[in-house]
Structure to design on (289 residues):
């Protein structure tokens, strides 16, 4: 059981609840929600977990100083094992994407995997880090759209990418704390994303209760993530910044659900958003950051 818990910690397993919604939102936007969508979501989860393991392998020296409780510096997982897990999960993600979506899916999954490894090995601690991570999430949305016309999912991909940019910018200060201006700026970005998503949902003109779903989920997303950012802006300590990063990760399904509902799939959107409270609960057991 201890070995399993070590692997769960290494890949931040519960944080993967924020991943399938990317693919579902992309598929809904492209009009290709189908039985292959869960398989593409599974491929996305494998690549996400691979990125987490590769992240810890790349950061093992720094973690020994700043986060000695992490699996590698604490000795619970060896560095070679972490690298092997990352490589194996990458291969599994690409194989699953190819099996589910063929060449069209691989045309997105391969650049996605490359972007994940580029972030972990090179870009993370540079000015390009947030943009690279945002590109990973944007490609993840397009992976869901790959069986159809990915261009139709570009607005959803850009929305998820913008959200990811804010979370990544905050994460760069979760050990040292930040200037209050940073969470204030990311909070403004969150409010803008929620407003645009809700407005687009109203323009979609869905009948009855379906029309209310995008706005409701957008407001939920803004409240959950925004509250944590407001707390960080008031007191930008490392603890408050980490809380905002965690809220950004666990709150993403609400935004993904709003995007899915905006595309005309409100039931699927509600199902995606349901991962948000579960993610928050599991984050108390396994840190998503």
């Amino acid at each position: 059981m201890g070995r399993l818990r070590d692997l769960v910690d290494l890949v931040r397993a519960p944080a993967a609840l924020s991943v399938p919604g990317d693919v579902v939102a992309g598929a809904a936007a492209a009009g290709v929600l189908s039985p292959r969508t869960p398989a593409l979501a599974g491929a996305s989860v494998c690549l996400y977990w691979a990125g987490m393991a590769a992240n810890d392998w790349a950061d093992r020296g720094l973690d020994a100083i700043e986060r000695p409780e992490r699996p590698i510096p604490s000795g619970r997982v060896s560095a070679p094992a972490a690298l092997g897990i990352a490589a194996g999960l990458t291969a599994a993600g690409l194989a699953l994407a190819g099996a589910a979506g063929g060449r069209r899916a691989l045309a997105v999954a391969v650049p996605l995997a490359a972007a994940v490894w580029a972030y972990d090995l090179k870009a993370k601690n540079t000015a390009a880090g947030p943009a690279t991570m945002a590109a990973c999430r944007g490609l993840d949305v397009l992976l869901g759209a790959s069986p159809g016309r990915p261009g139709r999912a570009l607005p959803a991909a850009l929305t998820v990418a913008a959200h990811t940019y804010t979370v990544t910018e905050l994460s760069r200060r979760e050990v040292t704390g930040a200037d209050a201006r940073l969470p204030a700026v990311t909070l403004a970005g969150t409010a803008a994303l929620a407003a645009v998503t809700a407005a687009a949902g109203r323009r979609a003109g869905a009948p009855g209760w379906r029309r209310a779903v995008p706005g409701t989920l957008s407001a939920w997303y803004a409240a959950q993530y925004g509250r944590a950012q407001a707390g960080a802006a008031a007191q930008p300590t490392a603890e408050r910044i980490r809380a905002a990063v965690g809220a950004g990760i666990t709150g993403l399904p609400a935004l993904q659900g709003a995007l899915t509902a905006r595309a005309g799939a409100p039931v699927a959107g509600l199902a995606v958003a349901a991962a948000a409270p579960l993610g928050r609960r599991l984050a108390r057991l396994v840190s998503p950051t």
In short: The mean pLDDT is 93.
